[in-house]
Amino acid sequence: MTLDRSNQSSKPVSIVLVHGAFVDASGWRKVYENLSQDGYEVLVVQNSAVTFAQDVGRTKGVIAEASHPVVLVGHSYGGAVITEVGSEEKVVSLVYLAAFVPEAGESVFDLASQEVPGAEKAPLLPPKDGFIKIDPQKFAAAFSADIDPAEAQFMAAAQRPWGLEAVQGKITSAAWKAKPSFYLLATEDRMIPAQAQAAMAARAGATVVEVSSSHAVMLSQPEEVVALIKTSAEPNRQS
Question: 219-225: long-range contacts at Cβ-Cβ below 8 A with a sequence spacing of 24 or more?
Answer without folding.
Answer: 219/27, 219/30, 219/144, 219/147, 219/151, 220/144, 220/146, 220/147, 222/30, 222/31, 222/34, 223/34, 224/184, 225/31, 225/97, 225/184
